[in-house]
Amino acid sequence: MSIRTIFARLMAERLAFGSFIFLALIVILSLVAGYIVPHDPLKQDFTNVMHKPSFQYWLGTDELGRDIFSRLLMGTRAAIQAALFAILIPLLIGVPMGILSGYLGGIIDDIFMRIVDGIIAIPAILLALGITGALGISLWNAMIAIGIVFTPQFARLARGQTLQVRSEPYVEAAKISGAGPLWIMGKHIIPNIAPPIIVQASFNFSYAILIEASLSFLGMGAQSPQISWGNMIQQAYSMINMNSSMIFYPGIAIILTVLAGNFLGDGLRLALDPKYRKA
Questions:
Q1: Which residue of 65, 166, 204, 209 has the smallest Cβ count within 10 Å?
Q2: What is the rounded distance in angstroms from the CA atom of residue 211 to the CA atom of residue 203?
């Protein structure tokens, strides 16, 4: 299936395609935010504390006189960095682990799956908190923790898909022709298990943003002067009775981004899986 075909099918799903455009915009903003912010997001101006939305300050200012709109734009960096890095770790570790486990079987399968079962047995947010606490409190360590949390999901998915593909006639034909395991995994296994992996990655992309925001809200993620939507909510929480909009803006940003990731995942599932699309 060509990329053009996949994109055409995605465009046919209006909600999914709109989510794709929204997420693409968020990614672009995360790259250029430092160049387009109207005000310094770290500059404190005590003459404009809790300023209401105006032409100068589009979303108003916080309790230290900092421009909320500028901080919201800069917060896209932490969100996208966390999501991309948290997806990269399971793709590089979990997927190869699942492929080897499913294709080779035996003791390799037993060892890998017991490791995966042990990680899954711990609730995701508790595991992320524990890893972050052990590694040290920072945004990078939070991203590592999120990636480790996601790794078992990708490993089990890759293993299940590999078990299905390895019994296909073309894989058996490749074995008979003398092809080695690495060639078979690279030529036949990986291309055929890629669609569900991509769909899972799109769902986890949005979930990673939510976990990063949760860790930052709890003080275990991005630390000042770093800006993330999670620590914006944390800082605004104490002022909620005076200016609830300070929590509203980053909260809406998180909700829209997470929803967009989920809608995109549904659209990719329809575009990549003909059986699911037919159903």
A1: 65
A2: 13
Q: Which helix (H) or strand (E) holds 121?
A: none
pLDDT in tens, 83-136: 888 899 999 999 999 999 998 888 988 998 888 888 888 887 788 888 888 888
**C-alpha distances in angstroms, 18 versus 12, 80, 140, 202?**
10, 18, 30, 14
Helices (runs of H) and strands (runs of E) counted in the chain: 13, 0
Answer for the pair 99, 185: CB distance below 8 angstroms, yes or no: yes
CB-based contact 154:120 (threshold 8 Å): no
Contact 218, 243 (CB under 8 A): no
- The per-residue pLDDT for range 156-197, each reduced to its tens digit, is 999 999 988 888 888 888 888 888 888 888 888 888 888 889
φ/ψ bin of 178: left (φ > 0), alpha (ψ from -120 to 50), beta (otherwise): left
CATH C-level class of 62-278: mainly alpha
Sequence spans of domains, the chain: 62-278
